[in-house]
Amino acid sequence: MYYAGIDAHVKSSTIYLVDRKGRKVSSCEVMTNQEGFALGLRAWAKRGLVAAVESSGITPWVCELLEQLGVKVVVANPNRVRLIAESRKKADRVDARLLAELLRLGAIPEVHRPSPQARQGRIELSVRRQLVRQRSALVNQARGLLRGWGVQLPARYFARRGAWQSLASQNQLPAYVVALLRTLQPVYEKLSAAIREVESRLRQQARQQEGVQRLMTLPGVGPLSALTLLAAVDEVERFERAKQLTSYCGIVPTVRSSGEREQQGPITRQGRSEVRAVWIQAAHALVRSRQPRARPLQRWFHRVAYRRGKRTALVALARRMLSVAFYLLRDGTQYDPLRLRRAAA
Description:
By secondary structure, the chain is α/β, with parallel strands linked by helices. It folds into 3 domains: about 1-105, YqgF/RNase H-like domain (Nucleotidyltransferase, domain 5), CATH 3.30.420; about 115-210; about 240-345, no CATH class. It has 14 helices and 7 strands. The model has no long low-confidence stretch (mean pLDDT about 90).
């Protein structure tokens, strides 16, 4: 058995191989492509080779190239590979060597490799988020431009039909401001069209996934929030308890303990930030919902808000909703408000 640590980059990758006793077998730098990895690893892959690669944007592609050569791949969590982060010698060869040694010793902190469906969902949801951010930035630019001339706009003004034309026809605005608004308008419309196109594909996927339909029985949860959670989790069986899922999403409070004293602080914010953001929005939607099945969670929210304030209660509600979502996915059930009432009693 041979062990390889691979420090992979877009153009080139450094490979460091050791045998089962930790003796160096080979070290080289190759191009990050099929031919490069074949040149550096094919001879050893036939004798049983396991390779460790740090998780990054190119990791799925690199893993596919390695597995085509017959290499077993282990993906390492870069945040937990402390030896690399704290090493005084920071070089590609040193990183590759440490990965190989940790792999040989069975000390690699592995991360979950998402399925092709989950990977597709993550990419499409990420594209949508970027498009929404760009559109929001453009709207803020237009609002700031108009604010300088005393024009105050209500919320979601630009989502109205004919909003841009109405602004451009105002006589009190200087000609250059009107010209800038006319320049921004087609960009806004193209971004909106792109967002609608991506969301249309996402909603089509949502209709085909049983887990999405199950999550949408929970008040406040729509197709985008359900897809975001499923793409991040991929396999709910990875988590033994609901608390592990909420911790994975970084929505659990920090804890500081000394002696017999324990104090809870703000949430950790470590993990899947997109799930936190979307499910806090879902908690907003649940609080505003008029559905009878939302009332048990609404009552719980108001009790927490009375003691801790609305902001804290909203985050706590999102965490509770994620806990409920965990059991819906794990047990293959639908949301039942009666179970929450019995649990509260």
